[in-house]
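Cross-check.
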Amino acid sequence: MLLCAVITVRPSSPARKRKKQARPFLSPGVLLRRAEVVKYKAKVGSSTGGGYVCPNRYLCPLYLLRSNILMQTNWEIVGHEWAVELLSRRVASGRIRHATLFTGPARIGKTTLAIRLAQAINCVGTHPPCGQCRPCDLIERGIHPDVHVLSGEADRIKIEAIREMQGLLVLRPFEARYRIAVLVAFHNTTEQAMDALLKTLEEPPSQTQLILTADMPDALLPTIPSRCQVIPLRPVPRAQIESALMERAGLDAEQAALLAHLSGGRPGWAFTMARQPDALAEQAAILSDLLTVLRANRDGRFAFAEVTARANNLRQVLDVWQSWWRDVLLWAEGSRTEPIHIDRRADIKALADEVGAEAARRALKAVRDTLHCLDRNANARLALEVMLLEMPYL
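Predicted model, tokenized:
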């Protein structure tokens, strides 16, 4: 016997469609522009008699628009507006991930943004982070009992420090909503310490937040970024840094323009240089050493590598050399892009005319390869010797 079944599809009723269109709030992931908010308010107000009040302020588009403007100001971050907007909405809606990883070049603003996120999570003010309440103040001063900071900037983070932090995270918060661990420069961490942190990332205790920063996600174990919300920070526009230097640091237009160019889109670097009067002189000395070593023979270059490998500012030296060879290469190729070292135009032109584009390209690649090797704990002296052998001879 053959049995047949007939399935009928009932079209949705017009009333149901109208009810769907007249929903009085939006999802938290939507932030309307001002014109769209006005249009939305008029539409919903007309359908509800003009007396509409959103039942949940965190879902109301008008509240989200006002909160976005206030939070951008409260975070006190130069640039990175998209990241601030994303985190602000996540905090307001209560949908913040248990682990957040900020990546980007050194001094681009990762640590500042991590501290602001910790303040926003535990803030008790109206528009977090308010910067005025007790949790915000204690976190800013680094003495909050529920916020634990580990830094790998001065020395590598070892497994003992990670285990001690894990012992604190399993405890209930002392006075805040969450216990928060801020791991700064986590790329400078032993592999054993990274392995130890994986357990917490996979099974985080309740009421716990982890905030990590790293220059490059490739320097971490692949399983760490995969368990975090990764926020890659991009270079900030030069004009924005220049304006912030004049407003916040009190620099004149000429000094602000110079530091904004030299910063390479890194606000933290620019403000650090503004607070240190001798910093520009140190950078000039680094460039003078570069021009001197280019005129040295092989023995002179090896002697320079031996001394520089033991210097505390090795990373800074290589960063300056990288930006210098970038300027030389652009000039040698006839590019109209403005150089980073705008105060050394004559030196850049003279060196580009003498060595040519191909030699400048090899030198730039050698510096980048050296930085890559040092990130993987290569021998600093050997890496510098190989780099200097690739440099042109004057």
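The radius of gyration is 27 Å. The chain has three domains: 26-94, 96-232, 276-390. Passed to J.P. for a second look.
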